[in-house]
Amino acid sequence: MTRRTDQLKLGAFLANSGHHVAAWRHPLAQADASLDFAHFRAIAETAERGKFDALFIADVVALWGHHHDALSRTARAEHFEPLTLMSALAAVTTHIGLIATATTSYNEPYHIARKFASLDHLSGGRAAWNLVTSVVSDEAWNFGREQHIDHGDRYQRAEEFHDVVKGLWDSWDDDAFVRDKASGQYFDPAKLHTLNHRGEHFAVRGPLNVARPPQGHPVLVQAGASPAGRTLAARVAEVIFASASDLADAQAFYQDIKARAADLGRDPDHIKILPGITPFIAESREQAQALFDEFQALIDPVLGLRLLADTLGEDIDLSGHDLDGPLPETPVGQRGSRRDKVLELAQKENLSIRQLYLRLAGGNPVIGTAADIADHFEAWFEARACDGFNVFFPYFPGGIEVFVDQVIPLLQERGLFRREYQGRTLRENLGLPRPANRFSRP
Ligand SMILES: Cc1cc2nc3c(=O)[nH]c(=O)nc-3n(C[C@H](O)[C@H](O)[C@H](O)COP(=O)(O)O)c2cc1C
């Protein structure tokens, strides 16, 4: 296979004290980081020094779990609302993209179109929307429902939601605001377009009360791996946040998405696929493994069992089972693609309950020296398993500092990563085209 001529795209995943679920307990991590803006600012500045494409924040619009005993052992009960934090970070950074997660299940399209258009203006064209359909059913209870919307219905709503948001972003031609003091004309009414959307889920007249975003449309990011998720991704995503456990899986996902996009008439290069990856870096492999083991040892079994149940089905109580024995018969529950992957993993590797929850909690670690991490990135990239990575730093701030100081220079030396930002907007840095306005006359 010929060597690639493009370069890695890298996202820096923001997570309070760190991505590892027990990070806040580790001496290298800051325990009270969750609502400390100075902490996030320092991470953003380090990521920008490392020329990362974007910062990335996940979101859940509920307390992360109603099992307070487990939750109370994590630093996840408090977190900033993503668009608010990204707006503040926009003011203290200049080039890095700002990817905020917002769900289509418990929002209205007008709100989302307006907020992301605002963030795009605030940041000079660095906004991106990570469109999710909500993975946590507790969200329903905060929005007048007693049950989560069904998986299929969530995706139908997401499709229409997405189309309405994009339509609203096209409310104004790029040059609609003339602001001509002499004539007294602020905008040209001929360049204002009313969407008049009436669909199954939404009736939205428009227009949007924000000018067309600098990027035309903020970059569209998507995370969802089921057939419905992939269908949506192939049609609309420009960046896909993927979860891939091994190289063959990642290659299959990559090929599937790129082929689906091509079938729909899209250029496959205009979808960047970024699996999540957690690097544990030290001077030697032994030290890196020891570092990983330290974090894993801090996971309380109450928390570990809850993580497992959250993935397999909320009603499952594994507390009466031997932690070092096998998982009982396949539990009930409808959790989509993540659950299926975990059950498959347990069976394939014959894992005990404890081993399985440690695997889940440990994420997708790559453990080794800076050169090992760079080798891993290179191998996956060249094998066309990804276009880059969404990097989960196990602890902050040291986890990203060591990555930027040691791994980034290696990737740069190998020609795999930029030394300077090429563009002004996130779209330009990712090599994505600026969409035309559907209503504009040429
Ligand atoms: C890598 C990845 C990250 C996700 N991040 C979020 C998130 O931050 N918030 C959220 O509500 N859902 C998140 N989701 C959930 C998806 O939006 C979707 O609801 C879920 O994966 C079920 O759909 P699926 O069966 O198509 O995967 C994520 C999914 C994946 C695969």
From TrEMBL:
Pfam families: Bac_luciferase. FMN binds at residues 59, 101, 151, 155, 226. Keywords: Flavoprotein, FMN, Monooxygenase, Oxidoreductase. SUPFAM superfamilies: Bacterial luciferase-like. GO terms for molecular function: monooxygenase activity; oxidoreductase activity, acting on paired donors, with incorporation or reduction of molecular oxygen. Residues 21-383 form the Luciferase-like domain. Belongs to the NtaA/SnaA/DszA monooxygenase family. PANTHER family: ALKANESULFONATE MONOOXYGENASE-RELATED, C2H2 FINGER DOMAIN TRANSCRIPTION FACTOR (EUROFUNG)-RELATED. This is LLM class flavin-dependent oxidoreductase. It comes from Pseudomonas vanderleydeniana. The lineage of its organism: Bacteria, Pseudomonadati, Pseudomonadota, Gammaproteobacteria, Pseudomonadales.
